Amino acid sequence: MNPPTALAPETTIAIIGAGRLGGVLARAFRADGLTVHGPLRRGDEIPDADIALLCVPDAAISEAASAARPHATRIGHVSGATPLDDVDFSIHPLQTFTGTESADVFHGIGAAIAGRTPEDKNIAEQLARTLGARPFEVDDPHRAGYHAAASFASNFVLTVLDAAEQLAASAGIPGDEVRDLLAPLLRRTVDNWQSSGSTASLTGPIARGDEVTITRQRAAVDEADLALTSLFDELVTATRAIARQKVAV
After folding, report:
1. Looking at residue 171, what DSSP letter applies?
2. CA 157, 163, 165, 170: dihedral to nearest 10 degrees?
3. In this predicted model, what pLDDT tens digit does every residue of 100-155 receive, in sequence order?
4. What CA–CA distance (Å, rounded) separates 113 from 48?
5. Which of 79, 133, 129 is nearest to 105 (CA)?
6. Cystine design at 133: which of 111, 170, 204, 210 (Cβ 3.0–4.6 Å)?
């Protein structure tokens, strides 16, 4: 069987949910020549459509699905962690969105898909390919773990970067320069991780076994902000585990 292609041009999609992702999806599907209703706010009248795509908070999916069911042949959601209890399929673009992105933002990114039936999964894959995304399957039992991985790769990275900003500021680096100075280091680290993985890419005092420098760093963190000390300690412990793998290899 040939892999699914993009959706047929006559497909109609109702985007329910006018948040960041809903607006970007509506622009992207329109740019692909599809008929798009919305993004609709919850409570708006829902027109009949081939597909209703729910871009609402996870807790609102069940109610939104019930409201859309009489008006759509198939219903999907864009949640990364929520199972398919109330919908036919899901498609979760593996990207962070501010709501201002252009229609081509989906080109080349991953999109986690799932469906109750092969036909439902086929629709999810067609949606992903229409957007220019790369579909990959994640079933219900693994959705929470997959979504946690995405949080580590995006949300928690920002937590660590915020700590880096605070510590750089405490070292006297002007606040308006910190991100510009740290960004090249961050980009190279991500590039190295993408090509070689964490173990091969790890550098710095923990990788070298330089306990004197680690102790000095911890003292500096204590002096800058005691609230960051526990985060530093947890990260050192986790990074030591990576360093041990590096030695073992």
Report:
1. T
2. -170
3. 999 999 999 999 999 999 999 999 999 999 999 999 999 999 999 999 999 999 99
4. 24
5. 133
6. 111
